[in-house]
Structures are given as C-alpha cells and as structure tokens.
Amino acid sequence: MIQIRGVHKSFGDLEVLKGIDLDVKKGEVVSVIGGSGSGKSTLLYCINAIEKIHQGKIIVDDIDVHAKETNQDILRQKLGMVFQQWNSFPHLTVLENAALAPQIVLKQSKEEAMEVARKELIHVGLGDKFDMYPNQMSGGQQQRLAIARALAMKPEYMLFDEVTSALDPELVGEVLDTLRLLRDDGMTMITVTHEIAFAREVSDKVAFFHKGVIEELGTPEEVIGNPQKERTQQFLSKVLH
Amino acid sequence: MSLFTPLSWGDTGFIFQGILNTIYISVVAIVIGSILGLIIGFFRAESGKFGNMLIGGVLDILRSVPLIIQLVLFTTFMGVAGFPLDPFVAGSIVLSLYTMAFMSEVFRAGFESVHDSMVTAARSLGMTYWQTVRYIRTPIGLRAVLPSWIGVALSVIKDSALVSVIGYMELLRTSEQLISRTQQPLEILIGVGIFYFIISYPLSLYGKRLERKMAL
After folding, report:
1. Total of domains in chain B
2. Is residue A140 part of a domain?
3. Residue A96 predicted with pLDDT over 80
4. CATH number of the domain where residue B50 is located
5. Are residues A59 and A50 in contact, defined by beta-carbon separation less than 8 angstroms?
6. In chain A, what residues touch B115 (CB-CB under 8 Å)?
7. Does some domain include residue B76?
8. Of A100, A114, A177, B76, which one has the greatest count of Cβ atoms within 10 A?
9. Domain containing A184 — which CATH number?
10. Is B181 inside any structural domain?
11. Distance (Å, rounded) from C-alpha B60 to C-alpha A30?
C-alpha cells in the first residue's frame, strides 16, 4: 500500500504540492488528472524518490520513502516507472534493454534475466522484436518496451507519467491496451494521464489535481461522471469539449 | 670512396624500427591520454563551475602551448632539476598529457550528450549512480563521440613526429639520420609521408563513415 500524507514540495519559491493526501491499496488503479503544472507528475517523482519532499510522508509498504535510513535504490525495485519519454537505451537490443536491470540490480544470471525479459516482452506484444534496436521501432513500441523493462524488475507498483503524451495519436491505443492488460493482471498502478476516457474506464479511483492540491477524489463515476467542484467541471468541459 | 652511402635494403630494419617506435609512442599516448581524459571528462561533466574553471585552466595551457615547446621545456626542466629522462619516457609523458587535454573535452561532450531523463529512467529501475555511469552513460556517451575520438587519435599519431626533437628515434628522426647518411631526402621523406598517409587515411575514412552512420 502507498500512503501519501500531507506532502509538500517546492521548486525554489514555487510550491507545486501543497499538502497531498492519497492512499493507493494493493490491486488498485488510481488515475491522476488535472491541468499542466498542477503537480501531478511531481507527485509520482516524489513517490519514486526521484524528487525530495519538504513536508509530510510517503510510505510504501511500511517503508518511509524519504527517511534518511531508507535505501532508495532498493526501494525503487518495488516501484516500476514509465515516463512520457520512453528513454530506451539506444546501445542495447530490445531484449538487452529489458534484461539489463534484472542482471545488474537483482544480480540474476544472464540466462535468468533474458528469460524474464523475453516473457515480459511477449506479454506487451514485442515477442518478434527481441534483436531489434530501439531506433528501429515506433514510439508506441518503444513505450511498450519501457513498460516491459520496468515489469522485468517484478515491481509491486507501477507509476505511469503521461505515457501517451509524446506519442502520435495513432500509437496511443496500443500503449493504453498494454495498461489495460496490466490492470487485468491485478497490477497496482498510479497513472498520471490526459486520457480522460481511459481514466474513467480503468480506474478504481480518480484524483483531480489543481494547483498543487487534490481538488476532488472519488470513483470515476463521481469525479468524471458527476463532478461536484466547479474547477473539476471546468477542467473536464475543456478536455472533453 | 664517397662519404655518403645510398639507401639500400640493409636499411629496412632501421626504418622498420622507426616505424615501430612511432606506433609505440602513439599507442602509449592514446591509451594513457584516453584513460586520463575519460576520468577528467567525466569529472568535468559532473562538477560545478568552480571545479571546471580550475581544471579548464590547466587544460587550456596544455592545449594552447605548442607541443614542440612543451616537449623541449619539459625535457630541459627535468634535466636541470636533476632528473634527466629517457627521450621515450619524457616524450610519452608530454604526449599523453597533451592527448589527455583534447580527449577530456571529447569525453566530456560524450557524457553531456546523455540526457538526464535517460539517467532518471535508469535510476527508476533501481540502478545506483555508479551503475548508471557504467552501463548507461559511458557506453552511450562513448558511442556518440567515437568519430571525434578517432580524429584526436589521428592527430596524435601525426604529432608524435615532434617527439623527434628530444631525441626519440621515431620514424622522422630515423629518416633524418638516413638522410644525413645517404643525401637522398626526397625519396626518404616521400616514403615517410606515404607511411603516415597509409595509417591515417583509412582511419579518417572510418571516422567519417561512423559519423554518417550516427547522424541517421
């Protein structure tokens, strides 16, 4: 379980998170929506300890993420993350991309790591691309590679940071299908997304962010289907036209 | 009987030794210069303004003072200081440091070419800082600058001829001795030129091809 309690975070004078409280239970899919600059991506970076927080606590399975004694490299093994930019490792083949971290971080043997990598690549539909280099693939395929690469570490949680935003429109579908697949596997996920229809379809909970606070939190039916707050209504009317 | 004896097949071994010495000192300088350059280049890519200014100043001196002056200066200095060095040792030290000064900029550019988001992605997979340096930043950065590395290595091979001024018997000095004995400067120097061309040209072609390939 991920527990976020009173989290504040600033970049210089700019406070981007102003007291965030959020729980994500095992097996849940939580979508975070909101305008750009609302702090939604920053929250993911804080969960993964890529960014420090200035107040509050984030607890992942009883581990205090930002405590001094926490080994964040080990913590990150629990938390797979996929970014807007897929960041494939250009010097490695698709299979090597997915097998690298299990080998050097989890100290698996080469055969073991390759086996895990193959399985995850097949799972996301890249079973015929093992020996290709990332630059020979489309953005959608590279993003699925990024997902398989994270899954090969056997994380308990997956964090998705606007994973379809940098994709050509015709490639968005294949990546969303992959996320649906993970939901069906029972993966616990937090997805920051602009795909409102997708958030409504897959999420157990939706959080609407506005200027660093969670303005509205509830089931997709509540937040997207029948928003109570004016700001949520305004945002949704803009993005759904 | 003439004072001079013409070039003969008997000189082959002598010339060959000169060629070997040129290759030897070039390889030493390129290897040592690259290793030191890699370390300094990494440090420069990682450190702030102040550290950079300090190292940058030293590197600027190495890059700006002509190599021939550095060679003579260093050898003379060591002699005066009471530590006369063998020409090969002195030449290797100066040529390696000179190479390092250029290589460090090449590698620095390489490390800086790897985008931060790539490193963040690697860290998010649980890799430690040094694991990202070893498995992500170095291999990606090195690939990006391989063409420039070849360019610097080539110029080091050619610059190694200057080590002749402090008495190292590389190809140029070997041929100078032959010239003074045979009085056949044209034949000998053309031969020397051809040797440098044969080594350098394929390498520079290879570098250009790599550059085109990377641009794709």
Report:
1. 1
2. no
3. yes
4. 1.10.3720.10
5. no
6. 87
7. yes
8. A100
9. 3.40.50.300
10. yes
11. 55
Domain hosting A24: range is 2-87+156-240
Q: Under an 8 A CB cutoff, do B131 and A76 touch? A: no
- The predicted pLDDT at position B174 comes to 93
Q: What mean pLDDT comes out for the span A93-103?
A: 97
Which residues of A are less than 8 Å from B132 in CB distance? none
For the segment B171-216, what is each residue's pLDDT rounded down to a tens digit? 999 999 999 999 999 999 999 999 999 988 998 999 888 888 776 5
B121 touches chain A (CB under 8 A): yes
Distance CA A102, CA A121 (A): 14
Find the residue in B nearest to A150 (Cα).
B125
Please tell me if residue B215 touches chain A, with a CB cutoff of 8 Å: no
Mean pLDDT for A146-171 is 94
A16 located within any domain: yes
Instruction: Please list the helix, strand and coil fractions of chain A in percent, rounded to the nearest 5, in that order.
Output: 40, 25, 35
Residue A27 to residue A184: CA distance in whole angstroms: 10
Contact (CB<8Å) A100/B135: yes
What confidence tier does B165 reach under pLDDT thresholds 50, 70, 90? very high
The pLDDT, as a whole number, for residue B48 is 77
Res. B4: pLDDT tops 90: no
A107: which chain B residues are within 8 Å (Cβ-Cβ)? none
Q: Is the pLDDT of residue A187 over 70?
A: yes
Listed residue (B171, B150, B201) closest to B24, CA to CA: B171
Sequence-distant (6+) residues with CB within 8 A of B19 are B171, B195
Residue A145 in any domain: the answer is: no
Q: What is the pLDDT of residue A191?
A: 96
Flag whether A222 is in a domain: yes
Among chain B residues, the shortest Cα distance to A146 is held by B121
Q: Which residues of A touch B126 (CB under 8 A)?
A: 73-74, 76-77, 101, 105-106, 153
Looking at residue B211, what is its pLDDT? 81
- The answer to whether B171 and B22 have CB atoms below 8 angstroms apart is yes
Which uninterrupted H or E stretch holds A33?
strand A29-34
Structural domain range at position B119: 12-215
HSE-CB of A234 using CA atoms within 13 angstroms: 7
Query: In which band, very low, low, confident or very high, does the pLDDT at A126 lie, cut at 50, 70 and 90?
Result: very high
Residues of A in contact with B121 (CB under 8 A): 81, 83, 87, 146
User: Does B139 lie at the interface with A, CB-CB under 8 angstroms?
Assistant: yes
Q: Does any CB of chain B come closer than 8 Å to the CB of residue A105?
A: yes
